[in-house]
Amino acid sequence: MAYRLQRWMTRDFVFTAPPAFPDVVALQPERFFLRPYPPDREHPSLFVMALDKGEPWDLDESLAPIAVDLIGAEGPIDWSIAPVQVLGREGRYGTGISSSRKAGEEAAGLTLVRGRGNRIWAFGWRSAVSDRDMAERHFGVFMQGLQARSDRVGEKMLLSQYHGQEKKRRATIEAINAGHTGEDAEPDPTDSAWGQRFAAAMGASEPSTAAHFFAGAASLVEEPYGEEAPLGASRIGGGPDLPPDVWPSNERGMRHPFLLQINFAEVTALDGPMEHLPHDGLLSFFVHDDALLVDFVYTPPGAPLVRHAMSEAILEASVGAIAISSDLDPATPPGPLPHSEGDLVTAELIADGTLRFAHTLDPVWAVGDPGSSFEALSDDRWASVAYTRLRPRRTRSFDASAAKLRIEETEMGSLDDLAGTHEAFERALTGPHAGSGKPQVHQMLGHATIQGGIDCREEAARWGVSEGWADLSNPDDWIVLVRLRAGSATGLVFWDANDLVIMAPAADVAARRWERCVVLSG
After folding, report:
1. What's the CA gap between 488 and 480, in Å, rounded?
2. CA end-to-end distance (rounded Å), the chain
3. Which CATH number fits domain 7-177: 3.30.1330.30, 3.10.290.10, 3.40.1000.10, 3.40.50.1820?
4. Residue 91: what are its φ and ψ, rounded to 5°?
5. Strand partners, 28
6. Separation CA 336–CA 62 (nearest Å)
7. Gene3D superfamilies recorded for this chain (predicted)?
8. Is the pLDDT of residue 215 over 80?
């Protein structure tokens, strides 16, 4: 049995201690020390810190002094430094060797990240040289489990966590002493054991009974830590890579929030083309109207791309821009709009009905460069500064609706056993929420259900009929274009923290048409 992994938060991100370093001590509200349990020596150990610098700072020049503060004065003097990104933010990763009479020869590593508003994020590890590979491997696991915070955390909440830490530590240590672990024992979705388990749930002894209920799919594994994503790579969150002068917008010219982009060539590279999907090209997703509608931009291979960065300034200023747009009287003539003290932005109505925005000239209220223009978003709720790369991999899904129908028709097997097995399979397929110690995993193709066990293909077909799409009334004509699991490392949350499933007509996707896609929540 696995104990419940404990989540810890700072103002900027959530982290979970990896099973190899379960004992977490909060030295300050945003400073943590992680170690193995039971500890047989001082090292190896991990470190986490977030703090306000209060002024601009340099990543390269700051690494060594931050290392002394975080790891200790006996740490490395000379560092080998390389660029990295963490949740889409610029960072550096340094490693080095130190030697002292007290500790002997030791290795250490430090990742330093530029947070919002001159905040410093620091993540480190320290070990004997003989334990370096183990420590660095678990540090990588730890970093891939980070989750950005999309909301603001107050001082009281951080202090409550700090003062309540002993209860969390005691619960973890008691679980470990009782023989529980934090490891997930479920096999990979492609493991043959699932065929046996599903067959047994359907009252059969041969795994072949369940074979035709499986369907090929692609997993999209979030990678919040590592090298910066190349232009046109699969990503979720942040800003899009688009052809010049292209970005879906509303009637006021305000850009729809970017959700994700998928590079089909990366999916094809796994093991050849997948049925229905284009072999290459970049598909970008943009949500609007309470995330009920999705616009798409398909960019063919070889087309020029421009990377659009997302920033806190754009998100905050867009809140003011959205208010101006919502309150605009239809009879307002073109020209500059009224501006009052305290407004974050200024606006001008153009003759074609679109709006142009700029940060206010007042430096007290400007969240960007005073007076500079910016492209406002049509909705700030579905955008994020944080992004993670998406790494496709081949997997498979299971048609639980068809299996349920077989049990009902043959009166063999158990619906409860089927539901339990499918729930376990789903955990193996898409993993837990980000911030729980493992990367979040999304899905393309295969089978998916929404709340109540409703097959997404059937729900999409009903939607198609209601839209008058007579050629799309058959559920088999629909595919899971993408299923986004709740709890992305980017901090994006949809509706009541449900999954977001985008269904598409198979024939339309093969023809690179996207206007009849359907968004489902469940």
Report:
1. 19
2. 28
3. 3.40.1000.10
4. -150, 175
5. 31
6. 45
7. YwqG-like (2.30.320.10)
8. yes
